[in-house]
Amino acid sequence: MTETTHPLSILMILGASLCGATGSFLYKTGASAGGNTPAAYLTNPRLLGGVACYTAVMVLFVAAFRKGGALTVLYPVYATTFIFAAVISLAAFGTPIRPVNLAGMTLLLFGIYLMGKTS
User: Fold this and answer.
1) How wide is the angle at C-alpha 56 spanned by C-alphas 109 and 107, nearest 5°?
2) Residues of the chain with pLDDT > 90: what percent?
3) Are 14 and 80 in contact (CB under 8 A)?
4) Which of 22, 27, 46, 99 is the least buried, fewest Cβ under 10 Å from its Cβ?
5) Do 70 and 3 contact (CB within 8 A), yes or no?
6) What share of the chain is helix, strand, coil (3-state, %, to 5)?
7) Rounded-to-integer distance, Cα 100 and Cα 118, Å
8) Taking the CA of residue 75 as centre, how many other CA atoms within 13 Å lie in the half-sphere pointing to its CB?
9) pTM of the entire structure?
10) Residue 18 has pLDDT above 80, yes or no
11) Are the beta carbons of 47 and 82 closer than 8 angstroms?
12) Which residue, 21, 25, 10, is CA-closest to 84?
């Protein structure tokens, strides 16, 4: 049985991917701010923003699967988180995206395409 993946589900997973990359950025920047106690972590706005981002990831995943879509199609799309993270890192920290990174991103996108074709 072949399950049809709704295009809106793919967009929701892409949104989740962007939220996941943003959450990682917030965790990284929040980790260097504030104290090292549990109370400091619970009151750190960046860390709380990261938690909110990962909550949004979960909500978007559930919504996408309810809308309709094969796990083998939707979950690989979430791998674009790595691409979004690289772009955020470039913008925020000046971390270069080298040709080898671009090659990896291209292979990742090609892999996502192939996973979608086999489902």
Assistant:
1) 10
2) 72
3) yes
4) 99
5) yes
6) 80, 0, 20
7) 27
8) 4
9) 0.88
10) yes
11) no
12) 21
